[in-house]
């Protein structure tokens, strides 16, 4: 038996749904959430909601995300990887730059900044990327040349000496579109 209270509740709910703009319901249903990454228990990074978590392609990567330029299945993507690492700041910046050939000289930049207890080194490089198809930075393997690629990278060094690496590598247009969000994420370590 259908009670009168159920009928009233159903009518009120229907009127509410009809009175809401369809766009706002769709936005709420597909709202993206930001994610927070813990960095050595000393700080956090706020990952942009547009960066979608994915399974790391390598066991040495702690966190991996996908950044896009465009919508749909055919949108170009870049890898955003995060991991604690060592080996010295300058040596790693040199290694990262060495993975690229060519590119515009004015786009090859390195910037250092102090953010609270952290010293951050931002690295921008582009050109033809020599992507290593192997398990780690020191294991031999096949290399694939990727033209018109770029990297926005960051080495985040804590005053106690530990370093955390964050890199976004992919087609130049994807890096250009997402660089501002990447830098904002890196600067969130200060909060």
From TrEMBL:
Keywords: Signal
Cleavable signal peptide: 1-26
The keyword Signal is assigned to this record: yes
Keyword Signal: yes
Name of the protein in question: Uncharacterized protein
Originating species: Stieleria marina
């Amino acid at each position: 038996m259908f009670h009168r209270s159920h009928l009233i509740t159903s009518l009120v709910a229907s009127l509410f749904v009809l009175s809401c703009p369809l766009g706002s319901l769709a936005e709420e249903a597909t709202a993206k959430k930001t994610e927070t990454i813990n960095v050595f228990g000393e700080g956090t990074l706020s990952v942009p909601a547009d960066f979608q978590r994915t399974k790391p392609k390598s066991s040495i990567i702690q966190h991996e995300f996908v950044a896009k330029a465009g919508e749909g299945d055919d949108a170009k993507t870049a890898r955003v990887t995060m991991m604690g690492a060592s080996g010295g700041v300058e040596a790693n910046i040199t290694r990262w730059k060495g993975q690229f050939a060519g590119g515009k000289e004015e786009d090859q930049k390195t910037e250092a900044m102090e953010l609270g207890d952290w010293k951050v080194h931002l690295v921008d490089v582009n050109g033809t990327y020599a992507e290593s198809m192997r398990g780690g930075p020191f294991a031999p393997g096949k290399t694939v040349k990727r033209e018109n690629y770029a990297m926005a990278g960051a080495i985040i060094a804590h005053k106690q000496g530990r370093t955390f690496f964050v890199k976004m590598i992919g087609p130049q247009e994807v890096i250009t579109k997402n660089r501002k969000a990447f830098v904002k994420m890196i600067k969130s370590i200060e909060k």
